[in-house]
Design a protein that fits this description.
Helices cover 57% and strands 14% of the residues. By secondary structure, the protein is an alpha+beta fold. The protein has 2 domains: 250 residues, CorA soluble domain-like (Beta Polymerase, domain 2, 2-Layer Sandwich); 60 residues, no CATH class. The chain has a 7-stranded mixed beta sheet with strand order 2-1-3-7-6-5-4. A hairpin with a 4-residue loop joins strand 6 and strand 7. Helix 4 packs antiparallel against helix 5, helix 4 packs parallel to helix 6 and helix 5 packs antiparallel against helix 6. The protein is rod-shaped and about 115 Å long.
Length: 318
């Protein structure tokens, strides 16, 4: 989908591709081949810049070629097919002398934040600030999902204390996988932010990245938010790893207790069987001719069984 918008009087207005003006925002979401070619023709951006974000395996980076800058980051995404999973996808942002281009394979909340009719301090003309605002909102979205992960982890822990089911363990594994994706994306995005900070002081790209004092403050906020998100992701990873180890130990301990109980029951049950087998042999045994021999053997079996049970109970085998 190709959508071109431009800010007029603090509002976003749709622009026809045939009448595109300088300062427009070109948004590509799961674009077709024709839309990609049209964007390349309008902006004059390199083909690799426009198509790089369409590869789900692309890593975060910054590239500069001619008068175009590509800033590629990974942003959180919620797939409709699996709403409970946490994943990231590449978001490409191309800054040209006249336009600002965003490319993504799926619609995401980062772009949705700017799709309203009014947004404070947002203008498609101010491409540098728009770039920093997208980075800032991606960091906020990471923090939002990480807090949601923390609440979900607490709920799973509570459920596991009540019932050791495989479902809760699989949920923990999904959380751990999501945290791994988030940690990798946050660290690579943080490298992009650091390089942006260095580029801002580079006179060779000053005509593309025109930074004002308030933009510097915004970029500092981006760095702080990403640092906080990285730290939170690390804490959550450590907590989740400790929780997995703790519950693995609990499950192993429960299994040992069950095995010990079953072994004790087997020992107790085998005593009457062993005595009955002994007196059932076809050889002379005590009390064979005694009129109360059966009852004596039964009494001895009961006494020995009770004694074995008491001994095992005192040794905490039951």
């Amino acid at each position: 989908m190709l959508k071109i918008t431009k800010t007029f009087e603090d509002r976003l207005h749709d622009i026809d591709p045939d009448n595109i003006e300088s300062g427009s925002w070109i948004s590509l979401i799961k674009p077709t081949a024709e839309e990609l070619l049209l964007t390349e023709r309008i902006t004059g951006a390199p083909q690799d810049f426009i198509r790089s974000a369409l590869d789900p395996e692309e890593s975060s980076r910054i590239e500069i070629e001619d008068n175009h800058i590509l800033v590629l980051i990974n942003v959180p995404v919620n797939h409709e097919a699996s709403p409970g999973e946490y994943d990231t996808i590449p978001l490409g942002m191309v800054v040209t002398p006249d336009y600002f281009v965003t490319i993504c394979q799926e619609y995401n909340e980062v772009l949705q934040s700017f799709k309203g009719t009014r947004y404070r301090y947002f203008s498609t003309f101010k491409r540098t600030r728009f770039l920093f605002q997208l980075l800032y909102h991606s960091a906020l979205l990471f923090l939002k999902d990480l807090r949601q992960m923390a609440r979900k982890s607490d709920k799973i822990e509570h459920d596991l204390r009540l019932s050791m089911k495989n479902e809760e363990l699989f949920q923990l594994l999904d959380l751990q996988k999501g945290l791994t994706y988030y940690s990798m994306s946050l660290r690579s995005n943080r490298v992009v932010v650091e390089r942006l900070l260095r580029l801002c002081s580079n006179p060779q790209v000053s005509h593309l990245i025109k930074i004002r004092e308030e933009d510097e403050d915004l970029l500092d906020d981006v760095r702080v938010e990403y640092d906080q998100a990285i730290e939170m992701a690390q804490i959550q990873t450590d907590v989740l790893a400790g929780m997995m180890d703790a519950f693995a130990s609990v499950i192993s301990n429960n299994l040992n207790m069950v095995m010990k109980f079953l072994a004790s029951v087997t020992i107790v049950i085998s005593i009457p069987t062993m005595i009955s087998s002994f007196f059932g042999m076809n050889v002379p045994v005590p009390w064979t001719s005694h009129p109360l021999g059966f009852y004596i053997v039964g009494f001895v079996s009961v006494v020995l069984t009770i004694a074995a049970t008491v001994i095992l109970w005192k040794k905490r085998f039951f």
